[in-house]
Amino acid sequence: MTITLKVDGKSPDRIPDMKQGLVGTEIARPEGPLKVTGQAPYAAEDLPEGCAFGTLVRAPRWGKVNLRNEERLAAMPGVLSVLRDPAMIRRTAQGGAGKAPAQGMDEADFAGQSVALIVAESFEVARDAARAAVVAVDGPAPAVDPDQQETEGEPDSHGDLEAAMRGAAHALDVTYTTPSMAAAAMEPHAAVAWWDGDGVTVRTSLQMLKHNRKELADCLGIDPSRVRVLSPYVGGGFGSKLGVSPEAVAAALAAKTLGRPVCVVQERRQVFELVNRRSESRQRIRLAADEDGRLVGLGHEALVSNLPDEGFSEPVTQASHFAYAAENRLIGNRVARVRRPNAGSVRAPGEAIGVTAFECAMDELASALDLDPIALRLRNIPDAHPETGQPFSSHKLAQVLTEGAERFGWQDRDPAPRQRREGEWWIGTGVSAAFRVNLLTEAEARITLTSDGARVDTDMTDIGTGTYAILTQIAGEALGLPQGRVTVRLGDTDLPPGSGSGGSFGAASTGSAVWLAALDLRQQLATRLGCDEADLTLQDGEARVANTRQPITEILKGDTLTGHGHVQKGEAAQKVRQATYGAHFAEAAVNDVTGEVRVRRMLGSFAAGRILNPRTARSQCHGGMTWGIGMALTEGLVFDRRDGHVVNRDLAEYHVPVNADVPPLDVHFVDEHDPWTGPLLAKGIGELAICGAGAAVLNAVHHACGVRIRDWPATPDKVLAGLDGWPVPATAGSD
Amino acid sequence: MRPFDYHRARDLQDAQTDYVSGAAFIAGGTNLLDLMKLQVMTPERLVDISRLGLDRIEDDGDGLRIGATVTNSDLAADPRVRRRWPVLSRALLAGASGQLRNKATTGGNLLQRTRCPYFYDPDTPCNKRDPGSGCAAMGGELRNHAVLGTSAHCLALSPGDMPVALRALDAVIEIRGTDGRTRAQPMEGFHRLPGDTPERETVLDPGELITAVRLPAPRGDRQVYRKVRDRASYAFALVSVAAVLRLEGGVISHAALGFGGLGTVPWRDPEVDALLTAERPSAALFDEAATLLLRGAEPREGTAFKLPLARRVLRAVLEEATQ
């Protein structure tokens, strides 16, 4: 049996009826001890016997590729094969593609693309040979600057924004530019492949295995049923592991050619080129407000880039359609075709940079209006979707702002900039709202119930988010089993297809499938007991009906019961606008001598439906807020203006925040009951916490020192250029 | 990484006997191993000098003699250094990360290679990596590049914090020549300007070994190290200043300033030191010093910000040191 639920409307909330008390508690990750003691094997840490090692060869430029010294490379001692199979891929697949991206090694689409695989007996030899490869590339000068290219895409228009801007009491027209960014997951992309007859197993580090299996099958020209993908542990993905990447296809092809397992790991410098990046953006934001700060018009027009023929364009303005009320609206994305590495989904694609820039512009408007920035936002919360008229499933922006403000201590703030000084440092605070669409996607799961307990099976992944923990909780809650009697198996396409990890939909989607599988088992137990499922109470391994109680093991009588759950996206997604809301608060210090910025504290206040596990949810928010610090202050890929290659492709030069950059981060969850999101009433949270986080920091920078940085990141040179308009301080203290 | 031979030297004599053309000495390896993995450096032989007893810090008259393989962590924590040469301790702690400082050595740190991204990228031309091939940084993306001491062949910035402090402290490097004799080389003159041979970064000849760094008694008790960077830790200096000053009767009687983030070598300008000496501290004097320091600077797109930044930081450091 399978319980299938298509989410067409509201779901009843049954969690409060369950008695185990696991959902909503802070259980630790069951796999945590394995991870912190190095016993959880990541993709390239569990190698089969006889494994050979491959290294991808880099094209220094774009154009037609000629590998000049192939024979010499093949003759190097220890080299087993120089592979240039036409099935090898030139780009990383987009999330959910389910099919092969551009294939073939005769052309490089961009500088840094892989154009061959060298396989050797050892990693060292493969790497040496890959460096010795002489790759000649012939192509005209590439188009690498998005601002110099023709663009595609027209904006959506409602009303007349131009007229609204002309007639408004206050009009703001500003442009923000954001750099391209890297996901920079700690575990590099890696794959180990081996064949058994005509079937291949690929042990890798990917986020959405059911799609990855199809992508691999399409690349290899075989049926998906002959592909097994394993990703039991994933050391961070952030979108960069949504689609299959070049090393996995190359490993599978090499393993077939050589008749032995092959392991291919992207070097850190390759990860910066071969993995999908977040597009840079140029965002024109227009705001027209009346005397009271009510928006009468808003415009958000973004320019992003991608390679020719790529379907993805960073959906920068996704949340702008519903975030704020305004009668006259002009919102749209344009994409420029450039020879830079492939752009794709990186943590909260769209809102991460779109909301953040928009929330900086809102702060500018608040300053111009001499209005508290929280008041400005509260004044412009729409009653329904401003463009479609859809009702909101739930709308918690007011609560996250006001509850967050109280906890942060916002009420004592002097709104004027450049008022607070400690030695050389200007101190300021900033606020931002956060918006992120909420998604549910198809997922299946199976639970096997025996006298030993329950085992949850799904090909869902845990990319550091806490999937093992929350699925344990959901199954244990519904089946009345303590944590220790539930095991969870993930990351194997032999298991029922879950949602995969992406778009923050994993917990609600796969969690719902597990929930439905548990309901299936509850019904089977109820049948055995001759009662209604709804009258069954399961707790601590016992079943209670009316005033009788019986251990579940006795009901099973040694049998094994299997429950299947299957959740599908339904009409609920159209009937209502579902989103998550948050508010970020930051205190920043700006050094008046050097332009250096240090974040001193941050608070994030979030509404994301039922919080399944506050510990893992908070951890997600810490991650998102840290991304915000990086976006605001330090991160940005630099492309060479001549050939578009990534110049700063290591972690010494691409500056993610280090511990010293991250102050105490406070996370507050606002209660939310949103029955439209599925049977768990849970919503996505990981990506919400990045949206707008950087705006709180940048708005705090402005409040501290009076300098607006519209070209991110706000590195000392840019802040200094702004500070230069002010006199050099007369006295300087020590640090 | 190319295959290489490895020899663990028993003593100095053995180390130098074992050194052949194309070899490299290795101690902490924090920079060399990275560069070998990228094949920016391809030594055929590594001679390990990390077990030669060069890891001691000894009193040396009124100064200190720091063995070449004393780690950055140990040197920064030495109570004598912290008390009398605090600028050195602070410079060390401003560099790298705790893990790296536990491995990086005094001698090795003096030889740290530039972080120019084109130097790190064997797919681009670089006169330092591949003499005569050209300079990809020219016309490319600049930030961590030099504005002082550049040449038509190289814009590579000298990285590192410790050497900047050592310049201001008038440190002397002990070099053991291939003939087994030791000579004393002041920090002044140890690093070479790129000119038309940017691949030659120091006056060390092949096979010569740094055995120690001598710190003379500090000539100034007012010591400041200040580093400006893109993130709070684990980032190279945009601008750094090491100041060693003495004040007598309100007059600067000794001034020695080292600069990082600006030059192709750890920078010190004797004219700047002379300008400050025998003068009373004032904002005008500090501005004049900055103007003098930057008189020959060659700012480019991407590095021009370093000039106003250096001016601000120098002024703040001098104010702090003369308070």
From TrEMBL, chain A:
Domain (Aldehyde oxidase/xanthine dehydrogenase a/b hammerhead) ranges: 37-141
Gene Ontology terms, MF aspect: iron ion binding; oxidoreductase activity
SMART domains: Ald_Xan_dh_C
Pfam families: MoCoBD_1 (PF02738), MoCoBD_2 (PF20256)
Domain of life: Bacteria
Segments for region (Disordered): 140-160
Name of the protein: Xanthine dehydrogenase
Organism: Pararhodobacter marinus
From TrEMBL, chain B:
The entry's keywords: FAD, Flavoprotein, Oxidoreductase
PROSITE patterns: FAD_PCMH (PS51387)
One of the record's GO molecular function terms: FAD binding
The keyword Kinase belongs to this UniProt entry's keyword annotation: no
A Pfam family it matches: CO_deh_flav_C
Domain FAD-binding PCMH-type: 1-220
InterPro entries in the record: CO_DH_flav_C (IPR005107), CO_DH_flav_C_dom_sf (IPR036683), Diverse_Substr_Oxidored (IPR051312), FAD-bd_PCMH (IPR016166), FAD-bd_PCMH-like_sf (IPR036318), FAD-bd_PCMH_sub1 (IPR016167), FAD-bd_PCMH_sub2 (IPR016169), Mopterin_DH_FAD-bd (IPR002346)
Name of the protein: Molybdopterin dehydrogenase
Native source organism of the sequence: Pararhodobacter marinus
